[in-house]
Fold this sequence. Notes:
Layout: E1 2-4, E2 11-13, H1 15-25, E3 27-33, E4 40-45, E5 50-55, H2 70-79, E6 86-90
Parallel strand pairs: 5-6
Antiparallel strand pairs: 1-2, 2-3, 3-4, 4-5
Amino acid sequence: MATVPNAEIELIHDPIVEEDFGHIYGKYLGTFFSASGQVRADLFDRVIDVVAYVCFPTGLNPGNVEDRYFNELHAYAKSHGFGDRFRLLYVE
């Protein structure tokens, strides 16, 4: 997997996610992992919006996760020009 650097966070390019889900969810932008891996977010551009499909691989949830992710993802969206059409979708 290749790292895509940016000012706030790093997105990892996972070719398997792109191949398996890109045709369903839109253009795959990359995958975000929080500092200790408590949060994963796969970002897809669906033209009308950009969605971060957020999950918690360690079994946590938005109420008890300790890693930072919310502000980082929103700052990334704003700095890349899609802050006004960005949203998070929590998945299990």
